[in-house]
Amino acid sequence: MQAELEDRFQEFVRARWSHLVRTAYLLTGDAHHAEDLTQTALAKAYRSWRRVSRSDNPDAYVRRMLVTCNRDRFRKRRVTEALTAAPPERAGRDEAVARVDERRALLAALAQLPKRQRAVVVLRYWEDLSEAEVAETLGCSPGTVKSQASKGLAKLRTYPGLTRVMDGPAYSGAHSGEGSRT
């Protein structure tokens, strides 16, 4: 039985790793913190995998752990962070290289948002979660999600580098490559 649970956990990690790291990167603005954050959340998920795997939505359960771990890292030690304006480039990925300017503008704009607004914008428009799902993930009311999303999007619209990218033909919404509920 334990071996079967472990196999299911490993399958989950293989299938969701890159998506979770990408979400963590948008929350933290740092590739190394994103990987650390994802590993921490998955370690917690592993310890309670029996309960996580029985939930209606293991993805949502682990995503909530990811957001909570991100919030906890600021509670445990007060460290000033300087978010990077440019994501690391990856060799051999033509699409990634072609969208470097878009990513830089988006990440720089996200880095300017307060943590709560950034989390709401990332979960609502990158993860494509409903307002209720974002509220549940962040442990706040749907009204808070609406107001934080509105304020966050208003700030993003005023960011000069992002405005230029959003007007360009290659930009497809709040994030590249995935559907959005905008």
From TrEMBL:
Pfam families: Sigma70_r2, Sigma70_r4_2
Residue intervals of the RNA polymerase sigma factor 70 region 4 type domain: 103-156
UniProt entry keywords in alphabetical sequence: DNA-binding, Sigma factor, Transcription, Transcription regulation
InterPro entries in alphabetical order: RNA_pol_sigma-70-like (IPR039425), RNA_pol_sigma-70_dom (IPR014284), RNA_pol_sigma-E_actinobac (IPR014325), RNA_pol_sigma70_r2 (IPR007627), RNA_pol_sigma70_r4_t2 (IPR013249), RNA_pol_sigma_r2 (IPR013325), RNA_pol_sigma_r3/r4-like (IPR013324), WH-like_DNA-bd_sf (IPR036388)
Highest taxon above the source species: Bacteria
SUPFAM superfamilies reported for this sequence: Sigma2 domain of RNA polymerase sigma factors (SSF88946), Sigma3 and sigma4 domains of RNA polymerase sigma factors (SSF88659)
Domain RNA polymerase sigma-70 region: 19-78
Family per record: Belongs to the sigma-70 factor family. ECF subfamily.
PANTHER family: ECF RNA POLYMERASE SIGMA FACTOR SIGM (PTHR43133:SF50), RNA POLYMERASE ECF-TYPE SIGMA FACTO (PTHR43133)
Record-given protein name: SigE family RNA polymerase sigma factor
